[in-house]
Amino acid sequence: MVKSAVIVSLKDKASLNIRDRLFDLDRWHETNYEFDGHIILKGENSGLYLVTINNDLIYSDYLNELNSMLNLDRLIFASRHSSTTKKPSLHVHFTGNWSNENPYGGSKRSLSISEPIAARLAFLKLYEWRGRISSAKFDVSLEVTHHGPTDIDIPLFFIELGSSEEQWVLKDAAKVIAEIIIDVGNVEIKKTSQIAIGFGGPHYAPSFTRYVLKNNICIGHMVPKYHVDSIDVDMLSKMITRNSVKPDLALIDWKGLKSPQRSKLLKLLENTDLEVKKI
């Protein structure tokens, strides 16, 4: 059986809102484990662990210490999403830093271990269940890989409620996310479709979002157009290896790249065993 933990932060209003909805959906019992000064809880019916931390979620690489306690297979980060547009939105993404800059946590040029199978199911349910939220009309999309943590050796994904404080406190939106977390939390990491990595396009990954909605495919790490110039053999290797399931496909947002970027990627991908598909 897959062992998963939900990670919430005391510094994140959306995270705590989702935690409160999780409390409504299951009975949670104290375990014998403590982390970051808080008792780890376990859901009676879901079997999920619930871990509360003091830091912002993006600065949580120390969660690696959970491995020695719980021997986990998956981490699900219940998080806020912030944007200047303040548009109601729901997102799923993996974490990592593509360049020699890491202003939002994690290590430079490092990727977490993506968990594309459960993440895809969570994204599809967000898209399907968004109509249950009566308080606002929410957009749903994948996001490219960005920010920390990067150094945790447990497969993970973020599921986010955005994009401003107005949405972070909405109970009906948080309830949908909490229901999805319980629904996909212990899904087996079992390959039933192609696993891909993605290249190109903007931050909110519209081409990859549409592709996942229309095709039986799971996408792990996605690098946007504005970071493709940072991709070399080393970073490509990390995109392939830092996944819970080895990818067999490289998806290229062809129109979402400049010609030199396309040529560079095709040359790099020649030295892998990945099938290349332009979308």
Model description:
This protein starts with a strand and ends with a strand. Strand 3 and strand 4 form a beta hairpin. The relative contact order is 0.17. It has eight helices and 14 strands. The protein is an alpha/beta fold. The chain has two domains: 4-184, Aminopeptidase (3-Layer(aba) Sandwich), CATH 3.40.630.50; 194-278, Rossmann fold (3-Layer(aba) Sandwich). The mean pLDDT is 97.
Strands side by side in the biggest sheet: 2-3-4-1-5-10-6-9
Strand count: 14
Query: What shape does the CA trace take?
Result: globular
Q: Share of helix among residues? A: 25-40%
End-to-end Cα distance: 36 Å
Highest-level CATH class of the largest domain: Alpha Beta
CATH fold naming of the largest domain? Aminopeptidase
User: CATH H-level name of the largest domain... which superfamily?
Assistant: AF0625-like
How many helices in DSSP terms?
8
Work out the strand percent. 25-35%
| N-to-C series of helices and strands | EHEEEHEEEEHEEHHEHEHEHE
**Strand-pairing-aware structural class:** alpha/beta
Model regions low in confidence, pLDDT < 50 over at least 5 residues = none
